[in-house]
Amino acid sequence: MERKKQLVRDQVSRLVNWGHWFAFFNGLLAMVAGVRYLSTVGFPDSIIGWGYLAISTLGHFSFLAFIVYLVFIFPVTLLLPYSRILRGYAAIVATIGICALLYDAVIYREYGMHLSPFAFDLAFADLNSLLQGVSVFVTPLIVLVIELVLANALWKRIDRIQRRNVGNKLVAVIGVCFVSSHLVHIWADAAEVTAITRFDDAYPISYPATAKTFMENHGIDGSSLSSLPYEKSLQYPLHPLQCKMPQQQHPNVLVVAIDSFRSDLIDAQTMPFFHEFSQRNTRFTNHFSGGNQFYSGMFSLLYGLQGSYMDSVDLDFTSPLLTQTLKNEQYQVDMFSVASNVDSAKPKAIFNDFDMHLADESMGSAMADISNIDSFNQWRHQQQGHWFALLNLRSTEDYDTPVGFLGVETIRSANELKPAQKVLFNQYRQSLNFVDQQLQRLIESLPQNTIIIVTGVNGKVFTSNMDEARHNLSPDNVKVPLVIHWPEASSSQVNYRSSHYGIVPTLMTQVLGCTNPPSDYSAGRHLLQPDDSTWLYVGDNRVFAIYQENEITVIDRHGKYRIYNEDYSQRLRKKMSAPELLDVMREGRRFYGH
Asked: Once rounded to an integer, what is the mean pLDDT over residues 60-69?
């Protein structure tokens, strides 16, 4: 009896040893399959990138393989310690794992996210375009054959492998790689080393450690440390621009972009000048920014692309086509703003074509706005040729007015507000009234032949909680005014939905004479052409909302989603509509891989 028990224990021990080596070699197979993820994000082009990728890949996929072994194979080893059964079962489990990894790589290539209930629903609706050809059926069979061969070969050689006594050394190497990759990522995240951090979401179930908040709390500033560029993969524009502008038609263009500019408070009492100005020009009553923050709203305004492209490193070296074309047409291109806004903007090249004029913020946003308008007026009178100016005002972001400013009387909000919100609501109206006076001072001094665009960078929710404001994608936070003054044009009102994505195509065609279809360089179309799209993308590549006719779907980068009614006041208990989401995902990859 004792002899029989010892034989069983030896058999189980041998099977456990075999399972460890089977998991190790499957980790290597998973790394081979993981190359498909790198073909999506791009391979490193620096030593530091390759070094991090090597230790991260080895540690991560070895860890995944061991977890699969621990959960699905090890318990069976103890319950059914029969080598033939276990080898066949383990080969099937490993085949399913590798195939799931390959399928996840396809999902990641197409949609930029890993498998989740949301991604699975989306992929199932788009199955025909994702899985084509005989490889869908052949690949699992090939993987199963490889796994069976591997399982049997290891079983025959397990004693010989054990005698070499290399298992502990491999475990130590893998452990060091796993821990080191996280330590390196902590530094890279704090120092903004994009050669490393760009791989954050590349692999499934990957959550590299970060310490940015800890470092900032302890006074460590990583922004001064260099970040490294990597391989470009974005084709922007899709086709070379064809722009031919008559020499005599070079109108001056002023874009006034106001931070936190809500569309529902532009009334004759709060903003009398701007209200009257809008009545005399082309006003868009249902206009949306591309984001709820300065960086995402400004990205949609100048690039005309949806926020999913915002972190493309390609754009860190590519300025907006609008400003590139203006420079080619010998426009003087200048921007008037404040350093805090410019520093927070993405991508790095967004303002490369501008000559910058940055006002002092130490006395508050309102005084900075006054200074920027003074600087613009002085600059404008010095210009000999045609010019394009971007004037950024931010008093409304901080509810700011100058000391001693006498604004409008307080009123009761049409919406139900909490006590603290009521205070912010009326203080916001004061800052709107101040901005209105500055707009009057600015616009009344401009020549009549100047094209004037006044809009909001983003909207505003009445809260002092910055985290709440960042995650709020309601109409209050993204619906903004848009008024355009076209010289010698009559007043008109546009009631269909429009967005910042249409501003670039409008200027490219109307001002610069570009004949390309807007789809070559933008997610929008000319503002005076009704958009037949049933959805609108608002946000960045981390959290975004899909605006549809009667609902708003908010999605994070992990595929979790919430659906709200059209005014964002009630969460709806329903499943997401796949067709619109497929269109969103296609638009998000349209400028890649051409």
From this structure: 94
Residue 46, pLDDT > 80, answer yes
How much is the pLDDT for 110? 74
499 — phi, psi (to 5°)? -150, 170
C-alpha 163/C-alpha 236 separation (Å) is 58
Q: How far apart are CA 54 and CA 44, in angstroms?
A: 11
Angle subtended at Cα 117 by Cα 112 and Cα 121, rounded to the nearest 5 degrees: 80
Reported as a pLDDT band with limits 50, 70 and 90, residue 246 is confident
Q: Quick check: 215 pLDDT over 50?
A: no
How are the residues of the chain apportioned to helix, strand and coil, as percentages rounded to the nearest 5?
Answer: 50, 10, 35
* Integer angstrom CA distances of residue 388 from 167, 224, 340, 511: 67, 32, 22, 11
Backbone angles phi, psi at 546, to 5 degrees: -110, 110
Q: ω before 237 within 30° of 0 (cis)? A: yes
Cα–Cα distance measured from residue 55 to residue 66, given in angstroms and rounded to the nearest whole number? 16
Half-sphere exposure of 319 (CA within 13 A, CB side): 12
Phi, psi of 275 (to 5 degrees): -65, -45
Query: Which residue is associated with the tokens 């210009």?
Result: 383
d(CA 1, CA 8) in angstroms, rounded, equals 11
Beta strands in 108-230 (DSSP E): none
For position 134, what pLDDT does the model report?
A: 61
Q: Is the pLDDT reported for residue 227 higher than 50?
A: no
**Tokens encoding 154:** 């290891």
For 266-307, the pLDDT digits (tens) are 999 999 999 999 999 999 999 999 999 999 999 999 999 999
466 pLDDT higher than 90: no
Evaluate whether 463 touches 479 at the Cβ level (below 8 Å).
no
Please tell me the distance from the alpha carbon of residue 221 to that of residue 212, in angstroms, as a whole number. 9
Instruction: Answer whether 201's CB lies under 8 Å from 185's CB.
Output: no
Distance between CA 244 and CA 45 in Å, rounded? 38
- Cα separation, 226 vs 48, in Å, equals 12
| Residues 251, 386 contacting (CB under 8 angstroms) | yes
Q: Give the pLDDT confidence of 192-201 residue by residue, as tens digits.
A: 787 888 888 8
Determine what percent of the chain is predicted with pLDDT higher than 90: 62
Instruction: Count each helix (H run) and each strand (E run) in the chain, helices first.
Output: 20, 15
* pTM attached to this predicted model: 0.73
- Identity of the amino acid at 297: G
The answer for residues whose C-beta is within 8 angstroms of residue 431's C-beta and 6 or more apart is 366, 395, 396, 398, 399, 400, 401
DSSP state of 282: E
Among all chains, which residue has been given the structure tokens 């456990």?
16
What is the pLDDT at residue 217?
44
- The whole-number average pLDDT for the span 544-558 is 88
Return d(Cα 443, Cα 93) in angstroms, integer.
70
Which residues, including other chains, have CB under 8 Å from residue 19's CB and lie 6 or more apart?
Answer: 69, 73, 74, 77, 86, 90
**Between β-strands 561-565 and 551-556, what pairing exists: parallel, antiparallel or unpaired?**
antiparallel
